[in-house]
């Protein structure tokens, strides 16, 4: 693929589920018209941030080809994922797109030694033909995450720390030589010091191994620290997306402003100060069924149109935005102070 070609193209993806019984049930739109792309020649960390119930994991399942979208499509290296039917094609896809999940202790059986997973992965994806060669491949992958096969050999998952087992999980994902890693809440189960080690590992993979990362999180602090671009999801809708410095450094959507107010805002050169656990607001399930803007029930700037119509996507100040405050390019009467990060009247 050329540098300007799309590595991953998410094209107006919608995922709906039927809820309730057959006669009285309705539709829950878990992912609503999501579009973004990653490019082959520009490895990056693209974060998808949202509170619990925002649709992040549903979207992750679509990107991993575990779930078919109701509308829209996802293409990877030019191939529509819906055309992947055979096990051979699926294994080829998985060799290029690898997941890292939230709880590594659920990924590995407590009754099986850790190195067996690594050796099996190396053979399964054709990186080695026998156990001896697979052990070398596993050791190389472990060295990329600051471990070695000698450190984990003959040990069970419970004999490793949370940070160690999550790094083993990343090493396992690296064995097939993927071009994209999808990390779904990968640091939520470890403490602050280990959290930084793991997010720094993703930056290292981007910079040294040229691996792109989709980082799914409810932690704005680590998202700001490691992201190149970020998308803010609310009840299945991406309400604001773009370069992380724009979206979190100077948010325009009222919902992003609310989230940003809960996080201390250092200078760009002091991103490490963001490396603390900041959770987004609590879930409000009723917002999924709301007409119009999903944030209308909580927004301090709500207008009548917000309650009945879905805001269209617009390009405003270097990011994509869904908000009627900026309709047709007009700037609202409220603005975010770059110095304080608080809402002020202009």
Strand-residue proportion: 15-25%
The helix tally amounts to 11
Class based on secondary structure composition and strand pairing:
alpha/beta
Radius of gyration (Å): 21 Å
Describe this structure in words.
α5 (131-144) packs across α7 (162-174) and α7 (162-174) runs parallel beside α8 (192-209). By secondary structure, the chain is an alpha/beta fold. The protein contains 11 helices and 14 strands. The protein starts with 5 loop residues before the first strand and ends with a strand. It has helices spanning 56-63, 87-96, 104-107, 114-124, 131-144, 149-152, 162-174, 192-209, 220-226, 244-247, 254-261, and strands at 6-19, 26-39, 45-49, 71-76, 79-80, 97-100, 180-184, 212-217, 229-234, 237-243, 313-316, 319-322, 334-336, 343-345. The radius of gyration is 21 Å and the shape is globular. Mean pLDDT is 85; it is low at 334-346. An 8-stranded mixed beta sheet has the order 6-7-8-3-9-10-12-11, sandwiched between helices. Strands 2-1-4-5 form a 4-stranded antiparallel beta sheet, covered by helices on one side.
SSE diagram, text form:
Blueprint (H helix, E strand, L loop, with lengths): L5 E14 L6 E14 L5 E5 L6 H8 L7 E6 L2 E2 L6 H10 E4 L3 H4 L6 H11 L6 H14 L4 H4 L9 H13 L5 E5 L7 H18 L2 E6 L2 H7 L2 E6 L2 E7 H4 L6 H8 L51 E4 L2 E4 L11 E3 L6 E3 L1
Parallel strand pairs: 3-8, 3-9, 6-7, 7-8
Antiparallel strand pairs: 1-2, 1-4, 4-5, 9-10, 10-12, 11-12, 13-14
Helix pairs in contact: 4-5, 5-7, 7-8
